Amino acid sequence: MRTYRLILTDDGHGVSQRIELEARSAKEALSLISRDVANRSVELQEDGKLLATIIRIRNASWAMFREA
């Protein structure tokens, strides 16, 4: 299992918060908390390293930017 952290900012859809969890993959980490971040933009980190920024661009649309 790997340690993932999801960082949400105070974006008008909720307050800032950090969620840390154990999962087998980044995909599993996102699916475990998908309901909690449904209308939010989020940074996904693994062991402190930024993996991607997922940005809410419309009510049901998302854009994912992977980090190099």
What's a concise summary of this model?
By secondary structure, the protein is mainly β. The chain has 1 helix and 5 strands, in the order ββαβββ.
Give a written overview of the molecule.
- The protein is mainly β.
- It has one domain.
- About 10% of the residues lie in helices and about 50% in strands.
- The protein contains one helix and five strands, in the order ββαβββ.
- The chain has a five-stranded antiparallel sheet.
- A hairpin with a 2-residue loop joins strand 3 and strand 4.
- The mean pLDDT is about 80.
Mean of all residue-level pLDDT scores: 80
Weakly predicted, low-confidence segments:
none
Helical segment count = 1
Order of helices and strands: EEHEEE
Quantity of strands, as a count: 5
Biggest sheet descriptor: 5 strands, antiparallel
Structural class by helix and strand composition: mainly beta
> What is the terminal separation in angstroms?
23 Å
- Radius of gyration (Å): 11 Å
When the domains are counted, the total is 1
Write the SSE topology.
Blueprint: E1 2-8, E2 17-23, H1 26-32, E3 42-46, E4 49-58, E5 61-66
Antiparallel strand pairs: 1-2, 1-3, 3-4, 4-5
Structural descriptors:
single chain; 68 residues; mainly beta; 5-stranded antiparallel beta sheet; 1 helix; globular
